[in-house]
Amino acid sequence: MNNNNSNDNQRVVHVPVPIAVPVFMPFNSQNGHNPNDPNIMQMNQFNKLNNGTPLTKQQMDYFINQQQLMQFQNTPMGQNNFFSLFNNQNLSNINDTSRTNTPMTQLPLQFNNVQTPTATSKITTPKQGKPKKAKPQTSNKKKTKPSVTTLTITKDPLSEPDTSKKDANIISNNLVSMERLKSAKDATTTPASDMTPTSQAKTPIENHNLLSELAIESLQRQRNQGKFIHLDPVPQFEDQKDVKLWLQKIFYPLGIEIAIERSDKFKITFKCKALKRGDEDLHVEHHHENKSVTDDLKGEDSKKRRVKSPFNTCPFRIRASYKSKSEKWQIVIINNSHSHQLKFSPTSVNYKQFKQTLREINDIETIKKFDELEYKAKMNLPMDVDTIPCDCGLTEEVQSFGVVLPTSFTSGKQQNSAIARFTQKNSVKRSSAAGKHSDESDVVSNGSGVTKVKKQNNKNNKIKENLRKHVNMNSALSVDENHDTNFEQCFNTEGGLMDFSEQLSKVDFFLAGQKSANIPDFLNLDNNKNIMSHSNQLHDQINNENTISNNINSISSSTNNNGINHINHINNMNTITNSSNNNNSNNNNNNNEEENNFLDLNMGVDEVDFTELFLKPHKKSLNMQSQLEILDQSLPATDHLDLENIEMQYNNSDHTSSGKNEELSKGLDGMHLFEDSKNGPYFF
Amino acid sequence: MNNNNSNDNQRVVHVPVPIAVPVFMPFNSQNGHNPNDPNIMQMNQFNKLNNGTPLTKQQMDYFINQQQLMQFQNTPMGQNNFFSLFNNQNLSNINDTSRTNTPMTQLPLQFNNVQTPTATSKITTPKQGKPKKAKPQTSNKKKTKPSVTTLTITKDPLSEPDTSKKDANIISNNLVSMERLKSAKDATTTPASDMTPTSQAKTPIENHNLLSELAIESLQRQRNQGKFIHLDPVPQFEDQKDVKLWLQKIFYPLGIEIAIERSDKFKITFKCKALKRGDEDLHVEHHHENKSVTDDLKGEDSKKRRVKSPFNTCPFRIRASYKSKSEKWQIVIINNSHSHQLKFSPTSVNYKQFKQTLREINDIETIKKFDELEYKAKMNLPMDVDTIPCDCGLTEEVQSFGVVLPTSFTSGKQQNSAIARFTQKNSVKRSSAAGKHSDESDVVSNGSGVTKVKKQNNKNNKIKENLRKHVNMNSALSVDENHDTNFEQCFNTEGGLMDFSEQLSKVDFFLAGQKSANIPDFLNLDNNKNIMSHSNQLHDQINNENTISNNINSISSSTNNNGINHINHINNMNTITNSSNNNNSNNNNNNNEEENNFLDLNMGVDEVDFTELFLKPHKKSLNMQSQLEILDQSLPATDHLDLENIEMQYNNSDHTSSGKNEELSKGLDGMHLFEDSKNGPYFF
DNA sequence: TAATGGGTGCACT
DNA sequence: AAGTGCACCCATT
Ligand SMILES: [Zn+2]
Ligand SMILES: [Zn+2]
């Protein structure tokens, strides 16, 4: 398996062709860092995906398109790459909206800038006597220790002379240092009205942005959430901080606010930023009232149990590691699931900081994009999100399933969730002013961080015994109601997008992307060609549960320690679904019980209506659907649409990405049934 | 209770008389920050301590001496002070070695520098139009965010102009800024051969050192570990970092390496630095093999349980909070117990950093002191520490009791403790090279972070039903074997203390302090006048268990969540013992069982030999005892001894503290039986 | 800096 | 005993 075919005497030199198409490699191995031979991987992966059966037409198309998606820059053959070299002859087939089983259509906008490589994509040169310590640049401003001086035990790597990145052999115009750009802010006032896709004069920021757009697009297309997802066309970061900035550009539009969990010179681990106290409505906690036989064991012990934090349980992880060999950062999504609703929150402090950083580096392009995002998010308010009914009679063992009314708040009534108790720890009930709605978001917690959702409307489908979790796709990004009050001013002052916003003001922005998600249904899961209905997908997936092993590790597994005999019945169950849109269905659950136990999986729970669970369309979105479809379908292949003109109202900067915000913001492309409770059900 | 008698219109001006005597207030209230009227507190406290019975002669002496200990500086009447103003007429009675029930003798050394106040100890002046935000100084070098600029949400308090501390009304020569001193290092080359106690020319560093010595002395004398222990004569810190530095001067000699758990502008919370992987031998884990009825519930669940870290479980906490009113830092030991052996480890990286900082601020006095400490610690090697036998047949419910062979290591055999498993988590057995000994340190863990020690030799004493924990006093500080190899050179070069060290080389340095611990036996607990034997103390205390309520909260209580029905039977059980020396007795325990459960307290376990548990003398210490006693008794009232001359070999700095290192290093003065497992049994 | 996982100090929020 | 973001570490293979 570990066929590490890297040659120490060879070094990759990147050709100065910055444009690339993202490739995501659904590795099955835990170690995605020593990739195997690409051909072998192709076979293995595809066989796994296809469960050994002959390829269908869709599968073939998908496979071919994946090969087309091969990025040709910065990634040598067989290293971190799944598919072969990029060639753009079949680009027009990539953009496939798999829901309708229509032929793949061209990806919007991104591929306008894809250029035919004019040189060999990689050049191997003998490794010179280069110092082994090629360090990534880190803008380390922190100097906590009073001094270093003579203390031999303090070895400060930063004090070493920087011998990295400036190597003459490295040719890449993807290099960008936000620090440098900040200091040279005036030089980058973005005159760029040069919109020709083959422009070689792309600035580093523009390259960053392009790659971030591509990553978003591919992430929306991504399906194997249980696997490592490699963000392969990654720009060359000059500074370590730029990695986060770039990832923020990708994940903020997806409703994910990332935070660094751990970092050092060569590695950054990102996670979801912990929920705030006001985000109880986003947290997924649900429990049933029927106690199991172990109830008596939890009485006095449960209150002594130390709950670290119910806000910080999301299993989502991104790992960025600096590869000294390629002198690039490798970015892998280790865990693509979430324990909460995904929400684009322009009011977040971190988001404002992010915007501020964008202003400092003068990344007007991205600023515009997020201004639009903010505006569209605001226009969708108030988002009335349905809750998903809990059909607990048959899914007692379903642990985590995350639908709560995004705008609901439990202030009006006592919520017995761990979050509520955590929030009220200081004995002060939150005032109802913080809550906007008093909807019946019936979420019950057992106080152990393990959540359940009771499904009420039992329909006519079956659930296999090992299906333990309801999985909710994040197709409907909820929007923070506490919108930044300064937003409109900022937005208007930035360039007057009101024409554009009026055009889109009635469109559910976040649902727009769903329609254009380009996920082929090569598993034939999509039995329902209606965009809003995927009732049979999940069952198809269940039948394919062994096709793809589950890489979800037990990062946040099982804090359910307080006397609950939680037997894990599902191992490596991994299912992927096609783009099932919607999800915020009715959540009329029982919320009276604080504690709940997992019933043994062997209990006879066979009937689950996953249409109810996952596929109920967004109420408001449904209203917007017709407009949305019209808008989306009106996008030409090159997909500049009205947005192009609108965007030009901002300024003259090039806008390779801003025209496809719809796709960026909402893709409901993956679904993952995973093992443990904390590993949430949300994907983008 | 919250009689906050501070007058907003009055401000305390400190007289420039830096010398003070520590006062420790065993508050019963959870809130030690708004102290009550000192007179009321006197009554309350003393009544509680005495359980309402008439005072004995010893009690009266203690009370009187406590009043004498009133520090007169920096603390207004009734604020953070328990006793009345200092007057030194009865100083000669303070130093009482309560073990022998001899009359209190004078505290050594410190009081040589106590001076008669020549002015009113506090001056109240009308508060001027001073801004309310008197901020503590923080040497904040960290600027993680790329910038602040216009972002309104980033409110950086450090950017505000500093209006604090420099107020003209504040007169205090206790002010010290290590930052400042570092920059003006040459100016403080410590000529001070001025050893007259009334010297007004004491430098800030000298004041810091003196107060740290006093704090150590009083901590050794401290008994109410379950209560908040206020370190009241606290120097005035210019910089936030100086708080830690000062506390390090106090707690390193006590075998405690502190680390910041949390800090902000106005508060610092310190804890014990987490044990390193090589410190398994210091960690206390013990469990019994007999399972309870809940065993079946833990089978599959236990292995999924997420053990955060078995190295980071010590409940010891110090809280330092800046009082804007007094513009001083209030330092309170919130939890004085430990879950591990206390050990002075000169090889610690943090300790070396600490020493380095001392050099940078040119605190030669403290450097000398710690050089001596290091040398003495090294001279005591190898310390053969006995383990305490576990008498588990009757103390199944005893949760945490910490005795492991300090120098033992479990490399030779499989240790089923959580630590061992934690260390070997990645399936690689640690090589035996890391271990020094292969002693039979039989430590068993149940994997839940809750530890038990099995007592084997059941003797003849009884344990009350609610006595749940064995408590081990830390009287025997173990010494890190991996001694700094550079120590001797440093030590010799600093001033050639070999004469002195040869004098003390055979003395168990850390036990020396025990003898001079000045704890009156006002609870009549000391039925055994033999210094090494306190067999009946604990029982006396148990009978007095209600005299002092237990402030130990359930902070670290019960991570034992995996199905164990751990019923807490003991609430507010708080016992204090007199200075019971020794502890590291034989620990021949069962270590075969990984999981263990708490038996219900109602099980009939009545017999415990606490002599075996707590009072077994240190083997080596016993050998040293005669020398130690001779040495200690040879100390004159002013207590300069040989150390004075020796110290002068260093240089001409004044040596208010270095002469009494024996007392500083080892005081076995407190014992605390507390509720939960994580709260360890070690005190100094 | 080989790759990769994790602990934890500690200050920001 | 604020929670957690972040980075300085260490450990294993
Ligand atoms: Zn998340
Ligand atoms: Zn400790």
Mass-distribution shape of chain A: globular
Beta strand count of chain A: 9
Q: Indicate the structural class of chain A.
A: alpha+beta
Can you summarize the main beta sheet of chain A?
5 strands, antiparallel
Radius of gyration of chain A: 24 Å
Largest sheet of chain A, order of strands side by side? 3-7-6-5-4
Biggest interchain interface, per-side counts: A-B, 48 and 47 residues
Question: What fraction, in percent, of the residue positions of chain A are helical?
Answer: 10-25%
Kindly report the average pLDDT value of chain A.
44
Bound molecules: zinc ion
| Oligomeric state of the chains in view | homodimer
- What proportion strand of chain A? 5-15%
Q: How far do the termini of chain A sit from each other?
A: 31 Å
Number of helices of chain A: 17
Regions of chain A with pLDDT < 50 over 5+ consecutive residues?
1-133, 141-176, 182-199, 285-307, 382-417, 423-681
Instruction: Return the string of H and E elements of chain A.
Output: EHHEHHEHEEHEEEHHHEHHHHHHHH
Biased composition (Basic residues) (chains A, B): 129-145
Pfam families (chains A, B): AFT
Region (Disordered) (chains A, B): 114-149, 286-306, 424-461, 575-596
Biased composition (Polar residues) (chains A, B): 114-123
How would you characterize this protein structure?
The structure is a homodimer of 684-residue chains. Chain A is of the alpha+beta class and 684 residues long. The first copy, chain A, has helices at 38-50, 57-68, 178-183, 204-221, 240-251, 299-304, 349-360, 364-379, 418-423, 487-495, 498-504, 509-515, 537-543, 610-614, 619-633, 641-650, 661-665, and strands at 10-14, 122-126, 229-231, 258-264, 267-272, 317-323, 328-335, 343-344, 478-479. In chain A, 24% of the residues lie in helices and 7% in strands. In chain A, a hairpin with a 2-residue loop joins strand 4 and strand 5 (267-272). The first copy, chain A, is globular. The two termini of chain A are 31 Å apart. At the A-B interface, helix 3, helix 6 and helix 7 of A face helix 3, helix 6 and helix 7 of B. The complex binds zinc ion (ZN) (2 copies). The site of one zinc ion has 5 residues of chain B, from loops. The structure holds a DNA duplex (13 and 13 nucleotides). Chains A, B: GO terms for molecular function: DNA-binding transcription factor activity, RNA polymerase II-specific.
